[in-house]
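README: folding subset

This subset contains proteins for which both the sequence and a predicted structure token string are available. Records are stored as plain text. Below is the entry for Importin-11 (907 residues), shown exactly as it appears on disk.
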Amino acid sequence: MDMDSASSVVLQALTQATSQDTAVLKPAEEQLRQWETQPGFYSVLLNIFNNHMLDVNVRWLAVLYFKNGIDRYWRRVAPHALSEEEKTSLRAGLITNFNEPVNQLASGIYSFACSLWSHHTDCFLQQIYARDEAAALSSLERTLLSLKVLRKLTVHGFQEPQQNMEVMGFLNAVFERLKQFLECCRQIGSDSTCREKLEKMIILYTKVLLDFLEYHPCAFIPLIQRSLEFAVSYVFTPAGEGVTFERFIVQCMNLIKMIVKNDAYKPAKNIDDSKPESLEAHKIKTAFFTHPTLTEIGRRLVSHYFLLTEEELAMWEEDPESFAVEETGGDSWKYSLRPCTEVLFLDIFHNYSQTLTPVLLDMVQNLQGPTNVEDPVQLLMKDAVYNAVGLAAYELFDNVDFDQWFKNQLLGELQVSHHRYKLIRRRVIWLIGQWISVKFKSDLRPLLYEVILTLMQDPDLVVRIETATTLKLTVDDFEFRTEQFLPYLESIFGLLFQLLQQVTECDTKMQVLHVISCVIERVNIQIRPYVGCLVQYLPLLWKQSEEHNMLRCAILTTLIHLVQGLGAESKNLYPFLLPVIQLSTDVSQPPHVYLLEDGLELWLVTLENSPAITPELLRIFQNMSALLELSSENLRTCFQIVNAYIYLSATEFLQNYAESLCRSFCDLLKDITNEGQVQVLKVVEIALKVSPILGAHMFQPLLPAVFRGIVDGERYPVVMSTYLGIMGRVLLQNSSFFSTLLTQMASECSQEMDLLLGSVIEMWVDRMDNITQPERRKLSSLALLSLLPSDNSVIQDKFCGIINICVEALHDVMTEDPETGTFKDCMLMSHFEEPKLSDDEEPPTEQDKRKKLLALEDPVHSVSLQQFVYEKLKAQQALMGDQGFGVLMETVDTELVRQLQEFLQGL
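--- output ---
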């Protein structure tokens, strides 16, 4: 059949066959029936129903003829069978048609894909049983391809797949096909050429079920019973013996887990609020998970799947570090058997704890007392049961007296030194780590530290690594008390350092470094006498880890806590520390991709704990311009670093870097969020606070925008508050610069200076409520009062507003002495005191001390607002005379005057 000429003829016949007129309809149907056996007819039909521009009825009829023809003529043995060439063309054409907008037509395409899959599957099974492996492999590849297409169509091709009988029929057929393919595994053996692809096929079938369950949980409800029966049968009964393999077991367990845990299958707390689908699913699950079934699953998980395998035991002996830090977190449960079994156990135990708790406690009871070291089966069983008790710690809270168990049983097990008992020593110390945050009395901690001290010297490396991990969990726990740990600190820290040197793998070194970091963080300055060896070793480790960026991240984290623990003494680390910061924060160096976040944090804590600036520390700031250009999520830390430099040495820092910093800030402010804008402005505010004269001079290019923002009435309250904070500093502490700025802005705005000043004061008074921090509110009062005394008519016109702000601020900062009835400014600071700290409190950093000393000189904390108001009003009165001042005061609300007099009484 010639495609070009045939297309128009077939299209005309299909159009006539959709007619309501039987005189037109009948001849067209007869013509189409005659073409059914013509070569090329089905390719023409494919082109017609792939054309979305044609009438839907015509396309639908083309699909029906196509589907019926495929059913009749696809098989090679059928009369008038389609040629292999045309079959290939049809397959290719269908695979490109996944964007079919009409549901009925999509169903037709799906039906064809199903028939393809079924045909190839039957061919494979016939060939494999006929021992024709070459032909079977070819059919298996086709089956695999057709199933991949079906998987996508089934999962993503239908909004309501449960309404489509063909979809649900295919999903039900999956279970039968799985059984057939699993039986094939038994028949062909492990050395067959088909074995690898056969296992791949079986996994693909399970993926169909798992994906459908994930994307269509409600449509999956009719399949719950069959899925559970299938998965439990193969994983937890003899039915799976000889046919299952590890990846398949993982998939089956994931299927059970997803059904057990699925929120769509759980009724609401109030049954009346539950959806019918949820109730139906819950009913099916409840009927399946009977007491005997759950008991068998629980026992089998622990006594079979939790047992350490021969491969794992061999790994323990041959590669202890890989065994000790084997990856079990993240999504590993989706692919690896051990984490998969543990996650399934946890989910089933959580959902059916009433049934499974007695089962597990019975298993524990049967293993009490010391285990014969000559009985490897019992040792492995105890390890498995203790693993289960650790995993289910939160569920067993009310059923296990862990403190008594620790004292009466577990402690004794840890003291068995036989080399075969290392399984139990390692498992028990792990078990304690799982329970430490669940139920473990504080007064037992010293006993635990003694145990940890002993096990950190265990001959077995796996036991030592596990002990270090439990130490981290213990130290990181909410109930941790520094004073209980201090007697053991020196010995344990020394052993941790030894362990860090002994291990050779990067992952293990990282794990031990995390423990060391945690210990340093929790004991803080108490670590100082014991870190000498670590400080000497870290440069060597940094050099060795040049190709291992994740290990370097762990070193950076350790250095962060080390600097915090050493405080000002961290300056002794600078020869190593500063080059590390330099490399980690240099965006031109490839490692910055991994090291930047931790490197910035280290840079910040180094500055916060630095007693004085050094040329090398100042030089690192050359990295900052490029970092600010990145505008990444690390921008906030970058601003904190800038602020830390200003607090540390404003003069040197601003003289060296203010110009480049101003350029960076100007670029940033062009395209930044309001929050980012506030962060930039806070840097300027801190510079003005630390050095009012130099700060204003160095950040001069940014100040006109601040001035304009105030005059224009910036709408975002936090930004406006920061604008007023900056302008308050300039006005109060650098009045000559304020006058220069006012002159500049008046010229730019073509406005009288006095009128512009009036606009600023008016907006300041109007937007005072935007300022929420009491310090800034007091600053605003001091700044506006600094304009007095004045004979400027504009300032006198705004006098009422200035007094209004002052009274508001007085309410914020004044506290009344209950005995004398007088008021005092609660923000005043007269001297610097070192705070008395408890053991668990962090001591102040060098930057904290710098801030305190700065506060003593800050007008906000050194000038009494009450006294300042009084003196300024007196000066204004002296300037104007009593009569003139009286007239001025009459512009102020009488209630405000009364409140003001109350605050000023006694002066």
